[in-house]
């Protein structure tokens, strides 16, 4: 096994752990971390990829998005709230850096636009 696959496995398990934490704690989104885990597991090992895709965590949070059906609205709102909170923290920390604040504002606008206008709403059954 080469070093690249080992790094993908390690990052995948970190994403899985953070995704599990996000699935349990209401204000922390699971989606972005589980997406990282899915990407890393698919690049590292077919066996890990198949195992991850068979878990409830994957099926409840990612399956609809990966299959091109979109995301549940509740998940989209949680992701945007987390992104907004992190961006607001960065905005406050850059009080003396006007250019940094402007860039951060446009990055935030792009995230909000992308999640609400480009990612389809998935109607949960």
- If you compute it from the alpha carbons, what radius of gyration comes out, rounded to the nearest whole angstrom? 16 Å
User: How much helix, percentage-wise, in residues?
Assistant: over 70%
- The fraction of residues in strands falls at under 5%
Q: Helix count?
A: 7
Low-confidence stretches: none
The tally of beta strands, per DSSP, is 0
* Main sheet overview: none
State the separation between the terminal residues, measured CA to CA. 41 Å
Q: Encode the helix/strand succession as letters.
A: HHHHHHH
Instruction: Please tell me the overall pLDDT.
Output: 83
Overall 3D form: globular
Q: Determine the structural class based on helices, strands and strand pairing.
A: mainly alpha
Explain what the structure shows.
The protein is mainly α and 125 residues long. It is 77% helix and 0% strand. It is built from 7 helices and no strands.
């Amino acid at each position: 096994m080469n070093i690249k696959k080992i790094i993908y496995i390690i990052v995948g398990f970190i994403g899985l752990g953070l995704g599990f934490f996000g699935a349990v704690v209401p204000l922390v989104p699971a989606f972005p971390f589980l997406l990282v885990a899915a990407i890393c597991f698919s690049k590292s090992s077919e066996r890990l990829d198949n195992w991850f895709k068979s878990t409830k965590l994957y099926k409840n949070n990612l399956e609809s998005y990966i299959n091109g059906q979109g995301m549940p609205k509740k998940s989209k709102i949680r992701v945007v709230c987390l992104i907004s909170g992190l961006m607001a923290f960065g905005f406050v920390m850059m009080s003396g850096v006007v250019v940094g604040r402007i860039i951060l504002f446009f990055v935030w606008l792009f995230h909000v636009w992308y999640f609400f206008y480009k990612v389809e709403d998935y109607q949960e059954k």
